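Encode chain A's predicted structure.
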Amino acid sequence: YCDIINTVTEEQYDLIVINAAVQYFPDIKNLLQRLFENLTSDGAIHILDSPIYKRKEAHPAKERSYQYYESVGCSEMKGYYHHHIWEDLDSFNYKILYDPTNIIQKITNKIGFLDSPFPWIEIKK
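Encoded structure for chain A:
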């Protein structure tokens, strides 16, 4: 984590993808702000395959994660898995490109076309 956050290069990118990893960073706001330093002026960050919780869901999800890590004998992982909430993104220009809670997605999943249970989020500079 520290190596990624503390490394700022002179490289500029149009797109940065965080796939199945945002939950391993303790401070999503800091992560995004640091990644913005490497985006072109019209660049975007895409967060995929990572849970983002409603405030009321975060604590129960954290408890489930803790129980899971305990049950598999990896209790030290509790400190490395973070439960970010939607409000963490409020200060950013984000758009949900895929919403698994959308009623159409729920119906599609029920009839056998399973898709990701996680949102696809685009955050523009």
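Residues 55-71 form the longest helix (17 residues).
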